[in-house]
Input
Amino acid sequence: MPGISSETINDTSKNPVGLLVNRDEIVKELALLYGRKKLSLSGLGEVAKLIKRMGHDIPTSAVTILKTNNTPIRSKHFHHFSLKKGLLAKLKKGMINKESRVMKIQINIDGTQIFKTNSLDLWPILVRVTNSLDALPFVVSLFIGKGKPTNIEDYLKPFLEELIALQTEGLQFEDISYSIEVSSFVCDAPARAFLKVITGHTGYFGCERCNQKGVYDLYYRCTTFPQLTDCVLRTDASFRAKLQRQHHKGSSPLLDLKIYMISCIPLDYMHLVLLGVFKRLLTIWTGHWSKKHFKHKLGTWERQQMEKRLQRIRLSYPQEFHRVITSFKYANTLKAVELRALLLYIGPVIFKGILSDEKYNHFLYLHLAIRILCSPTMCKTYSHVARQCLQYFSFQFGKIYGINHLVYNVHSLIHLVDDCETHGPLDSFSAFPFETFLGTLKSLIRSPNKVLAQMVRRISELENISEMDQTIKTSIFNPENPAACVSTLRKHLKPNTRKDSYYLCENGTAVEIVGLSNTHVSFRCFTNPRNLYKEPMKSKNIDIFWSDGLEAKQNNLAISELKLVAKCWVIPMSRGCCVLPLLHQA
Ligand SMILES: [Zn+2]
Output
């Protein structure tokens, strides 16, 4: 029988480091390869057969390699995995703070269409442990059917029963008891209304934060919430007591949990700001908003200039950005990550001199507020500025573009800072990680037959792969661990990729790293940094500036002396360039 016995393998003197000869190690690496490279099951089987022919005694069935759960699924529509099992898997990977005895969890519930051609929807309950080293979401329950789950009580029951038991008894792991704390439910507006059993965002009493009655606009057929100051806010007590009867459509099953019904169900900026308010603004400018009203549509010359600018900055996108905006011709189909790049980074450059001064300044209020709220440091120091900016932005939206635009999303901006004060920067309670995971889940479905059974098998494989994979993404900017910072910097710096070599230093200077030895770093500084904009705040105050370019002179410093705090995006302009610190890792 060909193959290498485990006795041979354990004799490390005969095996150079890194050579895979152990049967279990080969199977594990195959499973990880399947997960990382998204191989097909048959592709995985073929690779396994090839390895077997090379003399290794390994299984060739993908099901065996991936330890697929083949238990028959009773229901066609619903399956509950296990919250406890998912949490234990995260504890095995480790917590950010080893001393922590609290697991902070975020829950996401959202629906998505599985296939373009039929109306089958996927409604998973996803959970992520925000203070675990592995903060990727996992699936707790799964509903597949036409439309949303018909009975919310049945849909949430297994999950809530487990969560309530865990909250009461705690979770035991390696002789330590962990308490489970629900940080937030992160959902879009329709899913929040579904969970809270309240009137939807188009209803008269649809604002989740204040109890004003909306106004129905007969001409535009939408409900607006024009009151932007002195709103009477909802509280956990007023919600539980159903003080405003019209806001409620029944009793939410979430009332059984120990959570604050208002602040624990925050507004998600991915849907509210990016896909809601900012996309509305962009489509008004590009003429995609309405087929009848083109009052605010930009002229042909302006739109051509914007396209030219997009082309100019195409090659400047740092590697953290996976989608490049190529044109505004389909502005209505831009994805949330593209809208984020536009709002937080390239927008002030693209729209400068194209929009009228009034509209450009108005846009900057949203840009500045969201940049402040996305930054872990600025959202603390400048939250009052963000609050004023969003209040003014919403008010001016009605004044510039019409009162009919003061719909739920635009109005809700005035409540957004409250959530940052409770939960921290916007990305700590955004739907982005869940949306990415949902995309992965959808990609696992290979055919329209027995969709739930397919999903359950694929998810069991994902869980097994995740258990085997002990790699944890490290942050490049970890002040606690300078050695890790240098080693990650080395990985980030690639020859001939200047776009990924710009960094902001602790003293506010931006530099281009041009060389890195074991002890020293060579860099060049940007010349003549000045404000890109001065209103609503000088851009240099938030480390955004306009420069003529890089100095010719190279500087040298010991690695420990050049304290980097953020990576930067350097955007080419017709004269010079604009430097903006990145607020996102990927
Ligand atoms: Zn409100």
Summary: The chain has four domains: 6-66, 78-214+231-266+444-468, 269-429, 486-581. The longest strand covers residues 120-129.
